[in-house]
Design goal:
There is one protein chain. The relative contact order is 0.13. Helix 6 packs parallel to helix 8. Strand 4, helix 2 and strand 5 form a beta-alpha-beta unit. Helix content is about 40%, strand content about 20%. The chain is an alpha/beta fold. The radius of gyration is 21 Å and the shape is globular. It folds into 2 domains: about 250 residues, TIM Barrel (Alpha-Beta Barrel), CATH 3.20.20.70; about 70 residues, Arc Repressor Mutant, subunit A (Orthogonal Bundle). It has 15 helices and 14 strands. The two termini are about 35 Å apart. The strands form 3 sheets. Strands 9-10-8-7-6-5-4-1-11 form a 9-stranded mixed sheet, with helices on both faces. The protein binds S-adenosylmethionine and iron/sulfur cluster.
């Protein structure tokens, strides 16, 4: 599979499914409680309209110029797309040129009984991302999850039985009342399952969530640092390579779709609230769909693309690329922003003198990664 960091023509497709069984108190993703009368067929028809319009507007011309080019990745995210019937995903996939692509489905273990993993595989999904979050049942309850740790393990086992050979496990750390030992115990249990990929996110309190209104007691900074250092050492010793701030992979198993985001490649975003980014004629366009599922379904193509002002481009690029442990080449910066490297050279030089970035690539040092926010501020 092509490494998006090396291929300037990389193209991803994000498909958003905006419903969940129940809203988790920490989550600010565009997700709404699923109702009995949610019409999946109607949502599929809206997605198809959205896809056809965006394909024509952005991708058709580029794909016609380079006939070998296909979508490198398709990502069904949410919300909880594992509430979506497999045959509906298949119908949508049949319209998308994506031969050889990584096709991911986010799975909440609480929905693993709904549809068979074999059906998702037959529908064309070849990678699963399972939202474990923790393996401690009291912690899962505190996080408002609809599943227990055993259900996560069962979902994982069934996914393997169905033949999935590329699985990510999402875990969070810095959880309410969490000790270093408890965070490491979560990681050990994820490691014991031997997934190809682990995402290890620090819990953040997002505005307008239930946790923002009624904040739980989180570990203090010194403890957070201890958890982070011990967790990174454990993952490295067990053979998962850190390639992005929160992403760890077995060799060759990095998430291609997320690499497209982090390397500032192009992607279309369809579905309620979905974002897209596309470069055309040295301009960068961003799209966003209506977030309310009902309004989105009424008019799935609503919303004109907005051009990113050139002043913003360097910052936007760095906010993505500097999350990658190896960064990207300096040529990639020029290719994907249409700004010359020499125009940011003075800022870069200043950062390099402070030991925060490397001189040969567009990448932070270990110190720069630790103070990433300060590095990014220079591009404001
Ligand atoms: C959009 S969710 C999709 C997964 C699926 N809906 C689930 O929860 O099982 C993607 C991941 O983001 C992470 N996440 C969501 N909110 C977070 C927060 N406030 N802080 C840190 N990680 C968060 C969780 O690990 C979650 O699995
Ligand atoms: S299941 Fe996932 S997307 Fe849905 S509310 Fe919980 S964290 Fe957010």
């Amino acid at each position: 599979m092509t490494d998006p960091r090396l291929d300037n023509r990389v193209l991803g497709l994000y498909v958003h499914f905006p419903w969940c069984i129940k809203k988790c108190p920490y989550c600010d993703f565009n997700s709404h409680p699923l109702k009995d009368n949610t019409d999946q067929e109607a949502y599929l028809q809206a997605l198809r309209k959205d896809w056809q319009q965006q394909y024509k507007a952005f991708a058709a011309q580029r794909l016609a110029q380079t006939p070998s080019q296909q979508f490198n990745s398709v990502f069904f995210g949410g919300g909880t797309p594992s509430l979506f019937r497999p045959e509906l995903l298949q119908q949508l996939l049949s319209e998308i040129p994506h031969q050889g692509a990584e096709v991911t489905l986010e799975v909440n273990p609480g929905t693993a009984e709904y549809y068979g993993f074999s059906d998702y595989r037959e529908a064309g999904i070849n990678r699963l991302s399972i939202g474990a979050q923790s393996f401690a049942d009291p912690q899962l309850a505190a996080l408002g999850r609809v599943h227990c740790a055993d259900e996560t393990r069962q979902a994982y086992a069934r996914a393997r039985q169905a033949g999935f050979s590329n699985i990510n496990i999402d875990l969070m750390w810095g959880l309410p009342g969490q000790s270093v030992e408890a965070a490491l115990a979560d990681l050990r249990q994820a490691i014991a399952l031997q997934p190809e990929h682990i995402s290890w996110y620090q819990l953040t309190i997002e505005a307008k969530t239930e946790f923002a209104l009624r904040p739980p007691i989180l570990p203090k900074d010194a403890l957070l640092q201890e958890i982070e250092e011990a967790g990174l050492a454990l993952l490295a010793a067990a053979g998962w390579q850190r390639y992005e701030v929160s992403a760890f992979a077995k060799p060759g198993k990095q998430c291609q779709h997320n690499l497209t985001y982090w390397s500032f490649g192009d992607y279309l975003g369809i579905g309620a609230g979905a974002h897209g980014k596309f470069s055309r004629d040295a301009k960068l366009l961003r799209t966003q769909r209506r977030t309310q599922p009902r309004l989105y379904q009424q008019d799935p193509c609503n919303g004109e693309p907005v051009s990113v002002v050139p002043d913003q481009l360097a910052l936007e690029f760095m906010m993505n690329a500097l999350r990658l442990i190896d960064g990207v080449s300096q040529d990639t910066f020029a290719e994907r922003t249409h700004i010359t490297w020499s125009s940011i050279e003075p800022i870069w030089q200043g950062l390099a003198e402070q030991g925060l970035v490397t001189t040969d690539r567009c990448a932070t040092t270990a110190l720069g990664l630790r103070y990433l926010d300060s590095v990014l501020e220079r591009f404001l």
